[in-house]
């Protein structure tokens, strides 16, 4: 009577009535009449309607599937959420829900699919496979996501791979990738392997990618084979998949792979060898197989091997790269120079400095100098309180720096070291209009860090700014610093 006679009830009234009904203090013909009335009352606050629906579901579990379907068909998003949460968190039977799922409107259907997936309800798998090809994007996406926690089969593998390769949206493709990686079942990896040879190239690539994401160690023999097969169009993705699952014990096999892999997969194979090599503590173990392979390799393969050796660094690796600096094949010689220019090993610095002056081409000289400067910057940071040592690192490079980019790299490296020696080295760059701005800012920053120390070197550098720099801001900053320096 209270509900029917008071159309504009407050939240407190609804809550009191619902509480009384839940405690059995209101006697009606139906034990959930009050809750049902509140749930159906569109004027009632949403929170109370949701609480009423939850109460009905808990009180009358036998009728729960029927009410769940009713709520999922409805136009109230909050009540749909209540129904989906109950499916997800309770032990409600799902047979009726699965049978009626495809008749639901898209919003309710998507929520139900998500809940069934979270429950890992094996009986829902056929439904998910059917609606994974639904015409409704939200339903498709929900089905793809729900497959991830499921105990899957070969049909699920195929659906997910096709979606990754040809899905209509990025969200669908990402959901399918995640589900393919997560799909449960002892036979899933075998099903993926079995599906690959007969699949179209784009789907084949996604299936192989999935093996890597699933850490399918049992598939290593097949992945090594596919990484060598350019006809499959999957050598790169197979090498990348191996990168997820190969271990130190596979090192000989992946080094061999690098000597045979077709061009498409070469970069991925290089990364694979590097990753595993870095897990080996012994330098000879790391580089021995690579050095042996270099000596027997054709020019194209040798280029890759030299790059890997230089990236690993170490005495033996650098020695092998140096040997190829004088190779009569210009391509191999260039590869050796490029390899040294990219190495993290500071042991290559003397070689790079020599190449900066004597490499066969100007481009190679510049490349070598850039490699040297990259290593010099790291070495300078390790010696940043030793100005003499930093000067020793940079002075030879300054002689060979003819291009603006290299000069700016030198200024950038020196500007991080606040010593009188670096200030002296930077100052001449103020005379070059292409580097004047960077040099002036570096001088100002270093002098500011001195906080009054080293006044002679500071004054010389700041006077040079005053004589050369036209930028008003830089001129003002340098002049302010000059005023603070001692007269002598």
How far apart lie the N and C ends?
100 Å
Oligomer: single chain
Class by SSE composition: mainly alpha
Q: What is the global morphology?
A: flat
- Biggest pleated sheet: none
Give the ordered list of helices and strands.
HHHHHHHHHHHHHHHHHHHHHHHHHHHHHH
- State which percent range the strand residues make up: under 5%
Ranges with pLDDT <50 over ≥5 residues?
none
Mean pLDDT: 90
**SS field, number of helical segments:** 30
Backbone CA Rg:
35 Å
The tally of beta strands, per DSSP, is 0
Helical coverage, percent range:
55-70%
Explain this structure to me?
Helix 5 packs antiparallel against helix 6, helix 19 packs antiparallel against helix 20 and helix 20 runs antiparallel to helix 21 (315-323). The protein is flat. 70% of the residues lie in helices and 0% in strands. The model has no long low-confidence stretch (mean pLDDT 90). The chain has 488 residues and is mainly α.
Defining traits:
488 residues; 30 helices; flat; 0% strand; mainly alpha
Task: Give a short overview.
With 488 residues, the chain is mainly alpha-helical. The chain has helices spanning 2-5, 11-22, 33-40, 46-59, 64-73, 77-89, 95-100, 106-118, 125-131, 137-147, 154-166, 170-182, 188-195, 201-213, 220-227, 235-245, 251-260, 266-277, 283-296, 299-312, 315-323, 330-342, 349-358, 362-382, 387-400, 404-414, 420-426, 436-450, 455-468, 472-484.
């Amino acid at each position: 009577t209270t509900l029917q006679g008071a159309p504009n009830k407050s939240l407190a009234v609804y809550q009191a009535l619902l509480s009384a009904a839940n405690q059995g203090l209101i006697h009606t013909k139906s034990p959930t009449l009050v809750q049902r009335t509140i749930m159906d009352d569109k004027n009632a606050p949403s929170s109370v309607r949701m609480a009423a629906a939850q109460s009905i579901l808990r009180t009358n579990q036998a009728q729960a599937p029927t009410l769940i379907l009713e709520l999922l068909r409805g136009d109230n998003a909050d009540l749909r959420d209540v129904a989906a949460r109950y499916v997800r968190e309770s032990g409600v039977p799902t047979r009726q829900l699965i049978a009626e799922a495809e008749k639901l409107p898209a919003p309710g259907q998507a929520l139900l699919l998500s809940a069934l997936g979270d429950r890992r309800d094996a009986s829902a798998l056929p439904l998910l496979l059917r609606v994974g090809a639904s015409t409704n994007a939200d339903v498709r996406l929900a089905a793809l996501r729900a497959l991830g926690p499921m105990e899957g089969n070969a049909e699920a593998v195929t659906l997910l791979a096709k979606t990754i390769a040809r899905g209509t949206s990025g969200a669908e493709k990402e959901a399918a990738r995640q589900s393919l990686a997560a799909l449960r079942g002892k036979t899933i990896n075998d099903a993926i392997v079995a599906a690959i040879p007969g699949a179209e190239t784009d789907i084949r690539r996604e299936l192989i990618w999935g093996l890597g994401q699933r850490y399918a160690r049992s598939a290593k023999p097949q992945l090594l084979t596919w990484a060598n097969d350019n006809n499959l169009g999957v050598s790169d993705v197979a090498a990348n998949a191996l990168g997820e699952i190969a271990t130190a014990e596979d090192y000989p096999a992946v080094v061999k792979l690098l000597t045979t892999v077709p061009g498409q997969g070469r970069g991925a194979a290089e990364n694979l060898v590097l990753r595993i090599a870095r897990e080996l503590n012994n330098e000879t173990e790391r580089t021995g197989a690579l050095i042996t392979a270099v000596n027997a390799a054709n020019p194209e393969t040798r280029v890759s091997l030299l790059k890997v050796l230089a990236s690993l660094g170490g005495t033996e690796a650098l020695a092998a790269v140096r040997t190829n600096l004088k190779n009569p094949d210009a391509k191999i010689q260039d590869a050796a120079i490029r390899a040294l220019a990219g190495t993290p090993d500071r042991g290559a610095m003397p070689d790079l400095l020599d190449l900066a002056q004597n490499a066969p081409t100007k481009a190679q000289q510049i490349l070598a100098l850039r490699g040297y400067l990259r290593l010099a910057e790291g070495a300078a940071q390790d010696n940043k309180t030793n100005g003499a040592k930093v000067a020793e690192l940079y002075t030879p490079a300054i002689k060979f720096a003819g291009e603006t980019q290299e000069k700016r790299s030198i200024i950038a490296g020196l500007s991080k070291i606040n010593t009188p020696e670096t200030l002296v080295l930077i100052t001449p760059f103020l005379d070059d209009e292409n580097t004047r701005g960077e040099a002036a800012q570096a001088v100002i920053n270093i002098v500011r860090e001195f906080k009054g120390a080293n006044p002679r070197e500071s004054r010389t550098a700041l006077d040079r700014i005053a004589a050369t720099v036209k930028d008003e801001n830089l001129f003002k900053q340098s002049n302010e610093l000059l005023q603070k320096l001692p007269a002598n």
